[in-house]
Specification:
Structural class: alpha+beta
CATH class of the domain at 57-149: Alpha Beta
CATH architecture of the domain at 57-149: 2-Layer Sandwich
Strand order of the largest sheet: 1-2-4-3
CATH topology of the domain at 57-149: Ribosomal Protein S5, domain 2
Region (Disordered): 1-36
Distance between the termini: 90 Å
Shape: elongated
Strand content: 5-15%
Order of helices and strands: HEEEHEH
Helix content: 25-40%
Family: Belongs to the RnpA family.
GO molecular function: 3'-tRNA processing endoribonuclease activity; ribonuclease P activity; tRNA binding
Subunit structure: Consists of a catalytic RNA component (M1 or rnpB) and a protein subunit.
InterPro entries: Ribosomal_Su5_D2-typ_SF, Ribsml_uS5_D2-typ_fold_subgr, RNase_P, RNase_P_CS
Length: 165
């Protein structure tokens, strides 16, 4: 029978066990589908552009205000910017709305002529909107701003069913 001494335990230590289950293999960072992301060329990043656009013509609705203006270069890609203040909610809520709006504006790029800039200002009421309501309202307001800023840019036969709302 083994005796315990002060310098060593009486029993051999148990083999180390894994502390957690093995993780599932992860996808590579760059494997995100490109279609879900608004390209950098289509985003407003300069503060001076935001200041210029917040003074431009706008259309407001429940939770959103869309500002729009024509760029100096008519062949430049259409760009979008988002203003979502802390009044809207905590960071998780703000980032969720920003991601939704980026996806929505990515879809709407085909309906909007090039050479325009837009800023979408989000108010706290937008948190209560479902994705479809947010999409419908953003589309309607965006196309209304386009009609005000560049009335000849949208063809008369448009596939947009909610332009006349």
């Amino acid at each position: 029978m083994p005796r315990s001494t002060a310098s060593a335990p009486a029993c051999a230590p148990a083999p180390a066990a894994r502390s957690s289950r093995p993780a599932a293999p992860r996808a590579a960072r760059n494997s995100r589908p490109k279609s879900a992301v608004l390209a950098r060329a289509n985003r407003i990043t300069q503060g001076s552009d935001y200041r210029r656009l917040t003074r431009a013509p706008r259309v407001g609705g429940r939770g959103l205000i869309v500002h729009g203006a024509i760029r100096d270069d008519a062949l430049a890609p259409t760009r979008f910017g988002f203003i979502i203040t802390k009044r809207v909610g905590v960071a998780v809520v703000r980032n969720t709305l920003r991601r939704r709006l980026k996806a929505i504006t990515r879809e709407l790029l085909t309906l909007v002529p090039s050479g325009l800039d837009f800023v979408i200002r989000v108010h706290p009421e937008a948190v209560a909107l479902s994705y479809e309501e947010l999409r419908r309202q953003t589309r309607r307001q965006l196309l209304e701003v386009v009609q005000r800023v560049a009335p000849n840019a949208i063809p008369e036969q448009c596939s947009c069913s909610d332009v006349s709302d």
